[in-house]
Amino acid sequence: xDSSQSMALGGNGxxxxxxxxISQTNDMAASAAGADDSMQKLNxxxxxxxxxxxxxxxxxxxxxxxxxxFQMPLLQRINGLVVELDNMVKLAEKCNIQVPMExxxxxxxxxxxxxxxxxxxxxxxxxxxxxxxxxxxxKSLRKHLLEELEQNFPDEVETFRESRAAAAAxxxxxxxxxxxxxxxxxxxxxxx
Length: 192
Hints:
Elements: H1 3-10, H2 22-32, H3 37-64, H4 71-94, H5 101-108, H6 114-152, H7 154-177
Helix pairs in contact: 1-3, 2-3, 3-4, 6-7
């Protein structure tokens, strides 16, 4: 067994079978101690996956050069793999991660799951542009209606504008009293 295989099993650093650095995973696990519990559980599952990949690689090497003398090490490696797979399942049950089926299907098709993220973002951008267009159209309609109403009913439009200004001023005053921003967000006081 070479150093990268032993490191993949021990998790002391080096390169895993899929090109990721195990030491990065350990760094994440160390920083997750202070972070939330779900991230720590996810790191444990990730470490278990890395260990399982190392065990599968060892098993492959043993099987590819198999002879009768290697029967006991083969059985030990199979048992180690079964134990680690069982450990992985137990750790995974503690994680509550929901992966969209589209991502799983993309992976099954041999595609990069980042394509799903890119497609979702592009879809959001397209929907945002449609919504912005509708909002702009409604603003334009409102402006046009107010212009037409002002030509035909100037007194009523002036009363309307005064009442809108008074209502807006009242809302602004209430928002300032409650530390709420005009867009509805709550103002957070900085702790300096």
